[in-house]
Specification:
193 residues; alpha/beta; Beta-carbonic Anhydrase, Chain A; five-stranded mixed beta sheet; 7 strands; 20% strand; globular; disordered N terminus
Length: 193
Amino acid sequence: MNTHRTRGTTRQWTSPGPSSPHNASVTSGFEELLDNNRLAAERFSESGLAVSPSRKLAVVTCMDSRMDVFRILGLGNGEAHILRNAGGVVTDDMIRSLCLSQRELGTTQILLMHHTDCGLQKVSERDFMARIEHEVGIKPWWALEAFSDPFDDVRQSIQRLYMTPFLIHKERIRGFVYDVDTSRLHEVQLSHN
């Protein structure tokens, strides 16, 4: 039993021990993944790839499990940096990664890729933050970045990239929305027209 103190109240919680059913199912899931890795390692033939992406490309996209970025864009290992978070939003941490990608690892182009039916379109940021604050006793210091229209959010992300002083290559930035039902990319223009 562990204790967590927030705003004058004490909450108790139990972490799953080694023999809990929850831990057993997680362990078996991990074992399957480790078996998959052993098989993949036996067939591995791409050692020696350069750390810098050969296409000088960084892709900023969502963590959505339906999106196989390498398949969608026809990329191979070693060709691009793939940067993912909830919604594919250009946050401070995404800019940190892009800064390193450009300044140390030679990328010169950025492809933004949001998608249809995104989880961030289905959540109220205000309600989400209030629930977390009620549950843990502290309001998150980060923004959820929920949005209603992925096309508008790509436009905002492009503008954030143009406005940051930390990127040195801004001349080759393009934004797209991936349709999860057709696997098609739709380019986003900065103008609403």
